[in-house]
């Protein structure tokens, strides 16, 4: 059976790799090994699934080292600076992994990253916490945040903070991301929100955040065959005719978006 992951079709523009190489030289050197070890680690998970063995023996070989090297590269290139948290580091790694994949690298590597960052989120956060301080030191102290318009473009956000709730899950108003209820867990810690883990479907979507705050999620208000939802840009309440899927243009700021209502 072949499955298509929701991010699988993403490809970078031809000129983006040159930009990436120029703006992020240390990261460019570290990424191939990071991807190589994740590809091997993913084979180990598949073996576990097929034969029911505990964690594959090859899983950790090299991955943690490659992660440390990439972490140092992130400090060197200014994507991470001092006082950045483990969650921020996971977010940076997620964007780098997605972009590296978009340059034509292996899907299997991304699937391991999904398993690591979403399904084993607590473990990933602990690992990053353990290595952050040391990496900053090894990089010779933080260099300050890289401010480059090209990088903002290359590593542009892949999700918004305007989500809607339906009877089956969560959707992003501004990006084509849908996450089923079984793939998230509602939690009060560290903040009220939803931990995104994909543990039910294993259909990792590397465009999705690992955590969505409750106050970023709106349940459409339905009244007399009308639906009321707020604009993802200016928050103005907008009203439309009730359909399962609606397209709304905000009368205030003219943002247009599509969403489901149930
Ligand atoms: Zn608006």
- The topology string of helices and strands comes to HHHHHHHEEEEEEEEEEEE
Q: Identify the overall geometry.
A: globular
> How much helix is in the residues?
25-40%
- What oligomeric arrangement do these chains adopt? single chain
Bound molecules: zinc ion
Largest sheet: 4 strands, mixed
How many helices? The count is: 7
* Gap from first CA to last CA: 30 Å
Q: Which structural category fits the helices and strands?
A: alpha+beta
Q: Are there runs of 5+ residues with pLDDT below 50, and where?
A: none
Q: Provide the spatial order of strands within the biggest beta sheet.
A: 3-2-1-7
Q: Which band does the percent of strand residues land in?
A: 15-25%
Provide the gyration radius in Å: 20 Å
What does this protein structure show overall?
By secondary structure, the protein is an alpha+beta fold. The chain is built from 7 helices and 12 strands. The strands form 4 sheets. Strands 3-2-1-7 form a 4-stranded mixed sheet, with no helix packed on it. A hairpin with a 2-residue loop joins strand 8 (221-223) and strand 9 (226-230). Helix 2 (25-51) runs antiparallel to helix 3. It is globular and about 60 Å long. The chain starts with 15 loop residues before the first helix and ends with a strand. Residues 231, 233-234, 236, 250, 252-253, 255 line the site of zinc ion.
């Amino acid at each position: 059976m072949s499955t298509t992951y929701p991010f699988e079709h993403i490809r970078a523009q031809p000129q983006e790799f040159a930009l990436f190489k120029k703006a992020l030289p240390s990261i460019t050197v570290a990424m191939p090994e990071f991807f190589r070890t994740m590809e091997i680690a993913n084979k180990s998970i598949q073996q576990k699934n097929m034969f029911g063995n505990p964690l594959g023996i090859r899983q950790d070989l090299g991955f943690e080292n490659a992660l440390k090297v990439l972490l140092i590269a992130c400090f060197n290139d200014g994507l991470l600076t001092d006082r950045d948290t483990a969650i921020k580091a996971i977010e940076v790694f997620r964007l780098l992994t997605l972009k590296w994949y978009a340059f034509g690298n292996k899907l299997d590597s991304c699937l391991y990253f999904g398993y690591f960052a979403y399904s084993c989120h607590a473990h990933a956060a602990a690992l990053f916490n353990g290595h952050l301080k040391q990496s900053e030191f090894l990089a010779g102290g933080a260099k300050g945040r890289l401010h480059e318009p090209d990088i903002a473009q290359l590593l542009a956000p892949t999700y918004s903070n305007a989500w809607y709730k339906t009877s089956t899950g969560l959707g992003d108003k501004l990006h084509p991301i849908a996450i089923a209820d079984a793939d998230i867990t509602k939690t009060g810690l560290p903040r009220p929100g939803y931990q995104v883990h994909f543990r039910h479907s294993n259909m990792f979507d590397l465009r999705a955040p690992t955590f969505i705050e409750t106050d970023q999620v709106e349940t459409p208000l339905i009244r007399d065959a009308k639906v009321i939802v707020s604009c993802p840009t200016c928050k103005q309440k907008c009203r439309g005719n009730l359909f399962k899927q609606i397209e709304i243009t905000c009368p205030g700021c003219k943002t247009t978006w599509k969403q489901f209502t149930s």
